[in-house]
């Protein structure tokens, strides 16, 4: 079964609004990563947060990690139409080589 | 700098036919992966290779075989294709010192009739 579960499954917002996506996972992790996938394309890595970190920023992206709740959130501030894509969280388990992906959140930003 | 290159981009097979999906990376990464993505779903790991000379099963290995030909190349073979293997297949590579950040190819869209 998949490790990461994203919520919501789909999100539609207006340009300029913030978008928040959540991810829950089940086992101990080494790190958690967020990826973006534009329609018909491969996934592109956005940001990685290690298990001993609580928050990380990259441009308009803010990721938080709560290992006690086994959850993470991705915030995209001041969204743009170009942010329309699917976003996936992925967990890297302790001592493993496998990265397990969730089912993704489909974000639609209306211009 | 090509990154991860997958061939072919599209393929249509008849049930029972075989084919090999090719993947090559030019980033000198040790680890390589094959995933499948079905509509509305995330990626499911088929096989992975932590380093040259090793391969291991992922979540959905049945019906597939892999070969890590050298450090650059990792191929996925369907010996007898079935309609349930209709999917988009992605190859990825990573380096552990980078925390396992995955670099993906553009994907192969496979239809099995």
Q: What fraction of the residues of chain A are assigned to beta strands by DSSP?
A: over 45%
Global structural class of chain B: mainly beta
- Percent of residues in helices of chain B comes to under 10%
How much is the radius of gyration of chain A in Å? 13 Å
Number of helices of chain B: 0
How many individual β-strands of chain B? Answer: 11
Uncertain parts of chain A: none
Q: Strand-and-helix sequence of chain B, N→C?
A: EEEEEEEEEEE
Q: Tell me, briefly, the overall form of chain A.
A: globular
Envelope shape of chain B: globular
Roughly how much helix do the residues of chain A carry, as a percent range?
Answer: under 10%
Oligomer: heterodimer
Class by alpha and beta content of chain A:
mainly beta
Would you report the number of β strands of chain A?
Answer: 11
Biggest β-sheet description of chain A: 6 strands, mixed
Main sheet properties of chain B = 7 strands, mixed
Query: If you compute it from the alpha carbons, what radius of gyration of chain B comes out, rounded to the nearest whole angstrom?
Result: 13 Å
Q: Largest interface, and how many residues on either side?
A: A-B, 25 and 28 residues
The number of helices of chain A is: 0
Describe the 3D structure.
- The complex is a heterodimer of chains A (111) and B (113).
- Chain A is mostly beta strands and 111 residues long.
- Chain A has no helices and 11 strands.
- In chain A, strands 2, 4, 5, 9, 10 and 11 form a 6-stranded mixed beta sheet that branches.
- The mean pLDDT of chain A is 92.
- Chain B is built from no helices and 11 strands.
- In chain B, the strands form 2 sheets. In chain B, strands 2, 4, 5, 6, 9, 10 and 11 form a 7-stranded mixed beta sheet that branches. In chain B, strands 1-3-8-7 form a 4-stranded antiparallel beta sheet, with no helix packed on it.
- Chain B is globular, with a radius of gyration of 13 Å.
- The termini of chain B are far apart.
- Chains A and B meet through strand 4, strand 5, strand 9 and strand 10 of A and strand 4, strand 5, strand 9 and strand 10 of B.
